[in-house]
Amino acid sequence: MAPDTITLARALVERAYQQMIHAASAFKAAKPVRDELRAALALPPTSTSVVPAELVHDLEGIAVGRTAHVFNGSCPDQVEGEMVRDDECPACRILLRLDAHKRAV
Ligand SMILES: [Zn+2]
Question: Would the pLDDT of 47 be above 70?
Protein backbone atom coordinates (compact mmCIF):
# COMPACT_ATOMS: atom_id res chain seq x y z
CA MET A 1 0.00 0.00 0.00
CA ALA A 2 1.32 3.44 -0.89
CA PRO A 3 2.56 5.54 2.07
CA ASP A 4 -0.06 8.23 1.42
CA THR A 5 -2.93 5.71 1.34
CA ILE A 6 -5.40 5.15 4.15
CA THR A 7 -7.98 2.42 4.55
CA LEU A 8 -11.58 3.40 5.21
CA ALA A 9 -14.63 1.24 5.81
CA ARG A 10 -16.66 0.79 2.62
CA ALA A 11 -19.76 1.96 4.52
CA LEU A 12 -18.04 5.27 5.38
CA VAL A 13 -17.03 5.85 1.75
CA GLU A 14 -20.58 4.94 0.72
CA ARG A 15 -21.98 7.60 3.11
CA ALA A 16 -19.48 10.18 1.85
CA TYR A 17 -20.44 9.33 -1.71
CA GLN A 18 -24.15 9.78 -0.93
CA GLN A 19 -23.36 13.19 0.60
CA MET A 20 -21.27 14.17 -2.41
CA ILE A 21 -24.13 13.28 -4.78
CA HIS A 22 -26.19 15.97 -3.07
CA ALA A 23 -23.25 18.39 -2.85
CA ALA A 24 -22.41 17.87 -6.53
CA SER A 25 -25.88 18.97 -7.56
CA ALA A 26 -25.32 22.26 -5.71
CA PHE A 27 -21.58 22.83 -6.20
CA LYS A 28 -19.82 22.08 -9.46
CA ALA A 29 -16.50 21.71 -7.62
CA ALA A 30 -17.86 18.72 -5.73
CA LYS A 31 -18.36 16.65 -8.89
CA PRO A 32 -14.77 15.38 -9.28
CA VAL A 33 -14.77 14.25 -5.63
CA ARG A 34 -18.10 12.50 -6.14
CA ASP A 35 -16.67 10.75 -9.20
CA GLU A 36 -13.53 9.67 -7.31
CA LEU A 37 -15.62 8.21 -4.50
CA ARG A 38 -17.81 6.40 -7.04
CA ALA A 39 -14.69 4.94 -8.70
CA ALA A 40 -13.33 3.80 -5.31
CA LEU A 41 -16.60 2.05 -4.51
CA ALA A 42 -16.50 0.29 -7.88
CA LEU A 43 -13.19 -1.40 -6.99
CA PRO A 44 -13.39 -5.03 -5.85
CA PRO A 45 -13.10 -5.60 -2.09
CA THR A 46 -9.52 -6.19 -1.00
CA SER A 47 -8.61 -9.07 1.25
CA THR A 48 -5.72 -8.74 3.64
CA SER A 49 -3.61 -11.86 3.85
CA VAL A 50 -1.82 -12.47 7.12
CA VAL A 51 1.03 -14.91 6.56
CA PRO A 52 1.73 -17.03 9.66
CA ALA A 53 4.98 -16.00 11.39
CA GLU A 54 6.28 -19.58 11.25
CA LEU A 55 5.88 -19.62 7.47
CA VAL A 56 7.65 -16.24 7.17
CA HIS A 57 10.49 -17.65 9.32
CA ASP A 58 10.81 -20.71 7.06
CA LEU A 59 10.66 -18.61 3.87
CA GLU A 60 13.41 -16.43 5.34
CA GLY A 61 15.36 -19.66 5.80
CA ILE A 62 15.26 -20.25 2.05
CA ALA A 63 16.26 -16.63 1.35
CA VAL A 64 19.29 -16.69 3.63
CA GLY A 65 20.38 -20.19 2.67
CA ARG A 66 19.42 -22.00 5.90
CA THR A 67 17.13 -24.25 3.84
CA ALA A 68 18.29 -25.05 0.32
CA HIS A 69 16.65 -26.71 -2.68
CA VAL A 70 17.99 -30.21 -3.38
CA PHE A 71 17.57 -29.84 -7.19
CA ASN A 72 16.94 -33.58 -7.60
CA GLY A 73 13.61 -33.30 -9.30
CA SER A 74 11.41 -30.38 -10.06
CA CYS A 75 12.71 -27.56 -7.89
CA PRO A 76 11.87 -24.12 -9.32
CA ASP A 77 14.68 -22.70 -11.43
CA GLN A 78 15.22 -20.74 -14.64
CA VAL A 79 14.60 -23.85 -16.77
CA GLU A 80 11.53 -25.34 -15.04
CA GLY A 81 10.05 -21.98 -14.08
CA GLU A 82 8.92 -20.63 -10.72
CA MET A 83 5.77 -22.71 -10.24
CA VAL A 84 7.18 -26.25 -10.09
CA ARG A 85 7.68 -28.00 -6.72
CA ASP A 86 9.46 -31.16 -5.59
CA ASP A 87 7.65 -32.60 -2.57
CA GLU A 88 10.84 -34.45 -1.53
CA CYS A 89 12.73 -31.12 -1.16
CA PRO A 90 12.63 -29.23 2.18
CA ALA A 91 12.70 -25.79 0.50
CA CYS A 92 9.94 -26.81 -1.92
CA ARG A 93 7.84 -28.13 0.98
CA ILE A 94 7.96 -24.61 2.49
CA LEU A 95 6.88 -23.18 -0.88
CA LEU A 96 4.04 -25.74 -1.00
CA ARG A 97 2.85 -24.42 2.38
CA LEU A 98 2.96 -20.89 0.94
CA ASP A 99 1.02 -22.08 -2.15
CA ALA A 100 -1.62 -23.64 0.10
CA HIS A 101 -1.82 -20.42 2.13
CA LYS A 102 -2.31 -18.36 -1.05
CA ARG A 103 -5.13 -20.66 -2.20
CA ALA A 104 -6.80 -20.37 1.21
CA VAL A 105 -7.09 -16.55 1.11
ZN1 LIG B 1 13.21 -27.54 -4.08
Answer: no
